[in-house]
């Protein structure tokens, strides 16, 4: 049973990682806690639903389309709702809250509140060393790994990636080096929202879709980036797995409630004794 | 007293009389109810701003309201205390908890502080949900008794059977909150707060104990949140963990910012307007959030200093001519 | 006798020493200069003395009382007050309010007295107001006393910085490059101001890049390089010291 | 500061005036004409927030019920024709918002009859309010909390079947269909009704010779059922009893099947089988029994078919949650018409005595005197639906026995 629990934990862990990476990109480069990130995740899921179910496209194709479209949406949002509030915390909170309301209500209006479900791209269940796992969950894990490595490669290898690091370390200095901070912010938001959309779509294939699925994702995402350290990608990965395993294993050993309390305690302890997070610096 | 002293006191005096007479003109219980809710929100928004005057944004307010509401409800129901004893105790409970958790939290700066307070709220909500035998779990506590009647023969007779009595109680609560917070802020403590907000390094270099003042502001702010919570419980006569979540914290925060947190009166205006909006926007049904969002955006983009800065803007407009 | 005694003061950042085994004294009523090329560790010294940094080793003794690694506000309370290199001010306050804010350190009013606005607290408020305006007058910022500090020209900001630190009632005043970024007559005015403060009996330790000013202000000068003390003595002695000249030629600027 | 204070005083006065004017405007709705008057029905609905997923369908069902009644010329009381006018108010998510909305309905719109409300924590506080105001309230939904419906709630009625009342038929059917099942575990949503529901189910199950292994409670926000179901399966039951909303039931079913649980899963809640099927997916929809009708089955009653078409015409979709909103309003109107009075007290008196009321699912009567201490529960035939390898099978109509 324990291997089953660990597998359960890993699966949720990878989804948390996708959400958190998007959040941490935006936070470290645009400098804003994007509270509407959960809604972006939700919209990602609905976009896939639209292409996959309504227009009957192939799941993976729709996934790709959704990542791109939502990424672009992200660029627009960054330009008009985030960029103006780079340097004021309260302004950013209010504008992102407004975004939550707008996006949620818009989806309620367009898609309705009725339950939606994205059919699993590959039916069936497979057994890995005694633990069972449905294909769509395996796909979620693999896809997440692919996307995360893609992100890592992008940041390591490309000039834009390096520029992102520079901006995240010190925006003014980066600007002085002639880096176009606005462009980098747009790229960051594009990738952040893309990842969120992917997370939403992949979970959409596993669970059901509702316009209110975002809040949960947001809290998990924030938790992960706090534990991992703002702006740290390896940190986010480790933290995501930790919180995922807490949800997977503690739930099975005790209960859902104990699991969520444990998660919160982990987060609060980290904040108190290592506010920069496990991998954060300074 | 010479005129210079009397004249400025005139408008608040008029305001007070108007507020005292409201129930005479407005007998409609629903309107009174809205005004009472408004009172709760004003208390919350103003106390949240008080915390922000040292330059820290707390999202723990919902948690503190919850602590206040539960402690006073439990004190009255389980220990049979009088509401009038439970009310301040609720405030003190919230305050002491804020002090205990606050002491380590205040080391955290900026967004970190905001985040930890956010998770504190989550934690409290979870705690009151799971501590079933004490807090009644998800259902929370129902049929919380009304405040004990105050009867001074011939003078006043508050039985809290009607909304009118609660209106006056809310008025008293708001008055108490505003006066105490304004007194503190306008004293040298307020100056210390503000200096910590503007430059912590400089403040410390001239001998201001910034950590101390951060804790002071946080706990005092939470005291009033606790009071508001107690009032909430005994007015609505029912409390549930779900009522004091992330959403409440965010709403109070929005009241504060939309009103304008640079001025003492800002959160008051914010709370008043934003309490009314949902009531007036009910006609929009599912689409009501759009209205709310629209207002937030308008304020945040065109009135960065908050609604309170509107008259100032007009004055600026008129100035050149 | 020595007001400030620094012995073996050392600070490591990670592996490397920003300040290494520094000792020197500042006597009551003295005006001592602390000079050295960029990165010599002058500002670090100030941070160590005023408690915003904890030393790795060494002691800071003020009036016979060990204040090593105490909290900044406590050190300020015993009378050691610093100014900042960057123009750090309460920028939303007016000039006068800046000084008032600093004056409040002096007043001995309790929380309740203040919150309840008791007569005693009101009286002290009035006292503070007059004291603040005196200081503003003393530093010569009366003309702009109601201007928001944020909108002042650079030179005035530096002066206001000094005024604020004065208001905190220091026995020992640590001035961090008070003259930097000032034009000639501003420099002269500020030098005069520092002299006047000093003549009032405030002991002063100042960091300065502007050598000419430092030389004609200070009675004694301590020279740092790469976190070590390389010389100490009267301006004349320092001018003559080859190591100092080397250091400055090495760093290639502000040779004395 | 003083300037600011005077500004505030101005603002406050302005605002009070504004509120007043608005209220005045809202309270003067559709002016009554000579031949037909309007009868206002308060609809308390969670229009915004997560609960709206269930509440909006109920609201639409109510709307259709009103349209249908009005299309038949409304109701006639003592020769006076009345058209029904639903006054919908959003109770949102929390206790305070619910009380605000209900206060508005009761005090401002002066409604004497109301339906609705789903928010689990809102039901009880609102009940005390409507009872004080002597407003008849026909519940959409129930948590089975003992205080929800009792001798102290003479103005509150419930005609829709809730898990508590449908345990017996369901478990009986389960025992009949799956004789091999001996041990059961329960997996309930963490809500006020969970504990009493568990106790009752335990009693019934043990009476039927089943062993109850345990109760597992999860918050309604749960999305991933793998860990939960893994835990339940560790106690290795032959069958799992749930009370989930559609997505929760669907999630449980899917997770259980994926994790290799073969036994039957019985859902006590009246959860739309079609939605559960959609969410779980055909391959996993097997051996699932739910106490709710398959609204698309040809075996439905004519009334359900009518309502179904009306809903499809108006809103393009139908689940059981939609149709479920129909009866509470319809019953209340029938009661009012029978009482020939608009006075809540008279209507309540008549309603609790009615022994023949039409419902979408068939003919019902009032009951519950013994089990609830008041005769305010609708006893109506209700459907059991079973999923067998991806197909819905309408088992039939069962009338629970609610003494």
What does this structure look like?
The complex is a heterotetramer of chains A (282), B (321), C (256) and D (403). Chain A has 282 residues and is an all-alpha fold. Helices cover 76% and strands 3% of the residues of chain A. Chain A has helices spanning 2-29, 37-54, 59-82, 89-111, 135-157, 159-169, 171-176, 181-206, 214-228, 233-253, 256-273; strands spanning 125-128, 131-134. Chain A has a two-stranded antiparallel ribbon with strand order 1-2. In chain A, strand 1 (125-128) and strand 2 form a beta hairpin. Chain A is globular, with a radius of gyration of 18 Å. The mean pLDDT of chain A is 91. Chain B has 321 residues and is mostly helical. Chain B has one domain: Orthogonal Bundle (ABC transporter involved in vitamin B12 uptake, BtuC), CATH 1.10.3470. Chain B has 14 helices and two strands, in the order H-H-H-H-H-H-E-E-H-H-H-H-H-H-H-H. Chain B has helices at residues 3-25, 29-52, 61-79, 83-105, 110-130, 132-135, 163-186, 188-198, 200-205, 210-236, 246-259, 266-281, 288-302, 310-318; strands at residues 150-152, 156-158. Chain B has a two-stranded antiparallel ribbon with strand order 1-2. In chain B, a hairpin with a 3-residue loop joins strand 1 (150-152) and strand 2. The longest helix of chain B is centred in the last third of the chain and has 27 residues, at 210-236. The two termini of chain B are 37 Å apart. The model of chain B has no long low-confidence stretch (mean pLDDT 90). By secondary structure, chain C is of the alpha/beta class. Chain C has two domains: 1-77 and 171-256, P-loop containing nucleotide triphosphate hydrolases (Rossmann fold), CATH 3.40.50.300; 80-169, Rossmann fold. Chain C has helices at 42-49, 72-77, 95-103, 111-115, 119-139, 154-167, 184-199, 211-217, 235-240, 242-251, and strands spanning 2-13, 16-27, 31-35, 57-62, 65-66, 80-82, 172-176, 203-207, 220-225, 228-233. In chain C, strands 6-7-8-3-9-10 form a six-stranded mixed beta sheet, sandwiched between helices. Chain C is globular and about 60 Å long. The two termini of chain C are 30 Å apart. Chain D has two domains: 36-161 and 301-381, 3-Layer(aba) Sandwich (Rossmann fold); 164-290, Response regulator (Rossmann fold, 3-Layer(aba) Sandwich). Chain D is built from 14 helices and 16 strands. The longest helix of chain D has 26 residues, at 2-27. Chain D is globular. Residues 1-30 of chain D have low confidence and may be disordered. Chains in contact: A-B, A-D, B-C, B-D. Chain A binds chain B through residues 33, 84-85, 89-91, 93-95, 97-99, 101-102, 104-105, 108-109, 215, 219, 222-223, 226, 257, 260-261, 264-265, 267-268, 271-272, 275, and chain B through 52, 57, 104-105, 107-108, 110-112, 114-116, 118-120, 122-123, 126-127, 129-130, 246, 250, 253-254, 256-258, 261, 286-287, 289-290, 292-293, 296-297, 299-301, 304.
């Amino acid at each position: 049973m324990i291997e089953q629990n660990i597998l359960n934990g890993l699966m949720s862990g990878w989804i948390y990682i996708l959400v958190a990476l998007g959040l941490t990109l935006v936070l470290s480069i645009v400098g804003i806690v994007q509270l509407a990130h959960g809604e972006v995740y939700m919209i990602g899921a609905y976009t896939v639903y639209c292409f996959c179910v309504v227009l009957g496209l192939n799941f993976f194709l729709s996934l790709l389309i959704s990542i791109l479209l939502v990424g672009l949406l992200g660029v627009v949002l960054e330009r008009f709702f985030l960029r103006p509030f780079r340097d004021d915390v309260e302004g950013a909170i209010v504008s992102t809250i407004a975004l939550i309301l707008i996006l949620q209500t818009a989806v309620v209006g367009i898609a309705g509140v009725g339950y939606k479900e994205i059919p699993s791209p590959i039916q069936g269940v497979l057994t890995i060393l005694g633990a069972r796992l449905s294909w769509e969950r395996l796909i979620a894990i693999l896809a997440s790994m692919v996307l995360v490595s893609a992100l890592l490669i992008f940041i390591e290898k490309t000039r834009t990636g390096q520029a992102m690091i520079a901006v995240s370390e010190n925006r003014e200095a980066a600007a002085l080096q002639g880096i176009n901070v606005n462009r980098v912010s747009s790229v960051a938001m594009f990738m952040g929202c893309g990842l969120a959309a992917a997370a939403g779509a992949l979970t959409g294939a596993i669970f059901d879709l509702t316009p209110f699925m975002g809040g949960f994702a947001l809290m998990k995402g924030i938790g992960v980036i706090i534990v991992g350290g703002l702006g740290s990608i390896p940190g986010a990965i480790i933290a995501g797995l930790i919180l995922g395993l807490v949800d997977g294993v503690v739930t099975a050993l005790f209960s859902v409630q104990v699991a969520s309390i444990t998660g919160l305690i982990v987060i609060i302890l980290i904040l108190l004794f290592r506010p920069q997070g496990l991998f954060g610096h300074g | 007293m010479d005129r210079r002293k009397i004249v400025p006191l005139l408008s608040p005096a008029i305001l007070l009389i108007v507020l005292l007479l409201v129930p005479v003109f407005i007998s409609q219980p629903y309107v009174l109810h809205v005004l009472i809710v408004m009172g709760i929100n004003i208390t919350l928004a103003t106390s949240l701003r008080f915390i922000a005057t040292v330059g820290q944004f707390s999202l723990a307010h919902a948690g503190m309201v919850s602590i206040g509401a539960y402690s006073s409800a439990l004190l009255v129901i389980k220990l049979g205390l009088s509401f009038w004893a439970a009310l301040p105790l609720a405030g003190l409970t919230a305050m002491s908890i804020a002090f205990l958790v606050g002491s380590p939290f205040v080391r955290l700066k900026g967004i970190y502080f905001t985040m930890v307070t956010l998770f504190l709220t989550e934690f409290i909500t979870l705690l009151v949900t799971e501590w079933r035998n004490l807090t009644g779990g998800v259902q929370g506590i129902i049929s919380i008794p009304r405040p004990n009647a105050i009867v001074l023969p011939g003078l006043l007779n508050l039985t809290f059977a009607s909304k009118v009595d609660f209106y006056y109680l809310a008025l008293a609560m708001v008055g108490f909150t505003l006066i105490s917070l304004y007194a503190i802020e306008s004293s040298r403590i307020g100056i210390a707060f503000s200096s910590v907000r503007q430059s912590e390094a400089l403040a410390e270099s001239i001998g201001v104990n910034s950590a101390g003042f951060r804790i002071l502001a946080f706990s005092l702010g939470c005291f009033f949140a606790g009071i508001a919570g107690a009032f909430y419980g005994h007015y609505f006569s029912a409390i549930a963990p779900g009522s004091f979540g992330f959403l409440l914290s965010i709403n109070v925060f929005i009241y504060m910012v939309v009103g304008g947190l640079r001025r003492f009166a800002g959160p008051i205006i914010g709370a008043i307007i934003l309490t009314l909006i949902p009531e007036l926007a009910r006609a929009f049904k599912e689409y009501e959030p759009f209205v709310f969002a629209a207002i937030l955006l308008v304020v945040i983009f065109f009135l960065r200093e908050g609604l309170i800065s509107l008259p100032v803007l007009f004055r600026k407009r008129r100035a050149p001519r | 006798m020595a007001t400030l005694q620094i012995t073996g003061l050392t600070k490591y950042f990670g592996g490397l020493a920003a300040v290494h085994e520094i000792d020197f004294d500042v006597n009551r009523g003295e005006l001592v200069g602390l000079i050295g090329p960029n990165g010599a560790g002058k500002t670090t010294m100030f941070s160590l003395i005023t408690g915003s940094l904890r030393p790795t080793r060494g002691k800071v003794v003020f009036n016979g009382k060990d204040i090593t690694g105490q909290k900044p506000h406590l050190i300020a309370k015993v009378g050691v007050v610093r100014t900042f290199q960057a123009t750090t001010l309460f920028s939303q306050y007016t000039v006068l309010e800046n000084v008032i804010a600093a004056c409040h350190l002096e007043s001995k009013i309790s929380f309740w007295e203040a919150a309840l606005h008791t007569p005693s607290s009101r009286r002290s408020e009035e006292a503070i107001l007059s004291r603040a305006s005196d200081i503003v007058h003393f530093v010569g910022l009366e003309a702009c006393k109601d201007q928001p500090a944020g909108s002042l020209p650079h030179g005035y900001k530096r002066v206001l910085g000094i005024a604020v630190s004065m208001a905190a009632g220091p026995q020992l005043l640590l001035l961090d490059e008070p003259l930097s970024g000032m034009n000639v007559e501003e420099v002269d005015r500020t030098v005069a101001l520092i002299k006047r403060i000093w003549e009032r009996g405030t002991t002063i330790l100042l960091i300065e890049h502007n050598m000419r000013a430092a030389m004609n202000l200070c009675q004694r000068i301590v020279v740092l390089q790469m976190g070590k003390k390389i010389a100490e003595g009267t301006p004349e002695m320092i001018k003559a010291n080859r190591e100092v000249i080397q250091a400055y030629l090495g760093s290639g600027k502000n040779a004395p | 500061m003083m300037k600011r204070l005077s500004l505030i005083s101005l603002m406050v006065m302005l605002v009070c005036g504004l509120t007043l004017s608005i209220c005045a405007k809202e309270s003067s709705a559709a002016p009554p004409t000579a031949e037909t008057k309007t009868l206002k029905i308060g609809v308390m609905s969670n229009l915004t927030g997560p609960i709206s997923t269930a509440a909006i369908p109920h609201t639409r069902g109510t709307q259709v019920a009103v349209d249908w009644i009005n299309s038949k010329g409304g109701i006639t009381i003592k020769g006076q024709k009345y058209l029904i006018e639903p006054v919908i108010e959003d109770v949102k998510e929390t206790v305070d918002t619910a009380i605000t909305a209900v206060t508005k309905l009761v005090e401002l719109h002066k409604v004497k009859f109301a339906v609705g409300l789903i928010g689990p924590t809102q039901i009880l506080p609102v009940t005390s309010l409507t009872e004080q105001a002597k407003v008849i309230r026909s519940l959409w939904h129930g948590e089975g909390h003992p205080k929800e419906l009792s001798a102290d709630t003479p103005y509150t009625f419930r005609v829709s079947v809730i898990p508590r009342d449908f345990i017996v038929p369901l478990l009986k059917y389960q025992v009949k269909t799956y004789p091999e099942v001996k041990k059961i575990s329960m997996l309930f949503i963490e809500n006020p009704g969970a504990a009493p529901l568990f106790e009752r189910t335990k009693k019934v199950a043990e009476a039927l010779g089943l062993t109850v292994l345990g109760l597992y409670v999860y918050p309604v926000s749960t999305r991933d059922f793998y860990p939960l179901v893994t835990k339940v399966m560790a106690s290795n039951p032959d069958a799992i009893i749930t009370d989930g909303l559609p997505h929760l039931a669907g999630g449980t079913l899917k997770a259980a099947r994926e994790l290799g649980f073969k036994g039957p899963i019985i859902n006590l809640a009246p959860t739309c089988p079609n939605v559960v099927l959609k969410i779980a997916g055909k391959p996993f929809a097997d051996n699932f029994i739910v106490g709710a009708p398959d609204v698309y089955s040809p075996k439905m009653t004519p009334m359900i078919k009518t309502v179904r078409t009306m809903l499809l015409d108006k809103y393009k979709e139908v689940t059981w949650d939609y149709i479920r909103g129909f009866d509470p309003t319809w019953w209340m109107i029938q009661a009012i018409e029978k009482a020939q009075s608009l006075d809540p007290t008279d209507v309540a008196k008549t309603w609790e005595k009615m022994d023949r009321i039409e419902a979408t699912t068939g003919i019902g009567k009032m009951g519950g005197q013994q089990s609830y201490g008041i005769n305010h529960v609708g006893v109506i035939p209700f459907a059991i639906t079973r999923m067998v390898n991806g197909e819905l099978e309408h088992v039939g109509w069962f009338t629970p026995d609610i003494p």
